[in-house]
Specification:
The protein is mainly β. Helix content is about 0%, strand content about 50%. Strand 7 and strand 8 form a beta hairpin. The protein starts with a strand and ends with a strand.
Length: about 110
């Protein structure tokens, strides 16, 4: 089963930006729907952005502040997040949408002044 390695998180102040990267351990060229998930402290993991072909979808909390993209040749999926806010704090994972995932370690974001 394909695995994902996430990176790019960190400790930032409100208003700053981060670019999260996800690398798949094997080809995901045939995976139609890829997404980024967030698990905030004490909460369940939720889908916050996904990409299907040229179409992208965002959680209302991220709309206008994030851009998801994928590079099929490199088997990567990125999430550019701008104007980060404390509510964005959490662990971020990438994975397939609508299919089981073998979750990676994720990458952690803390937004705090």
């Amino acid at each position: 089963q394909v695995h994902f390695v996430e990176s790019g998180g960190g400790l930032v102040q409100p208003g700053e930006s981060l670019n999260l990267s996800c690398a798949a351990t094997e080809s995901i060229s045939k995976v139609l729907n890829m997404g980024w998930y967030r698990q905030a402290p004490g909460k369940q993991r939720e889908l916050v952005a996904n990409i299907i072909g040229a179409n992208t979808y965002y959680h209302p909390s991220l709309k206008g502040r994030a851009t998801i993209s994928r590079n099929i040749a490199k088997n990567t999926v990125n999430l550019q997040m701008n104007n980060l806010q404390p509510d964005d704090t959490g662990d971020y994972y990438c994975g397939r949408v609508g299919a089981p995932n073998s979750w990676g370690q994720g990458t952690h974001i803390t937004v705090s002044s």
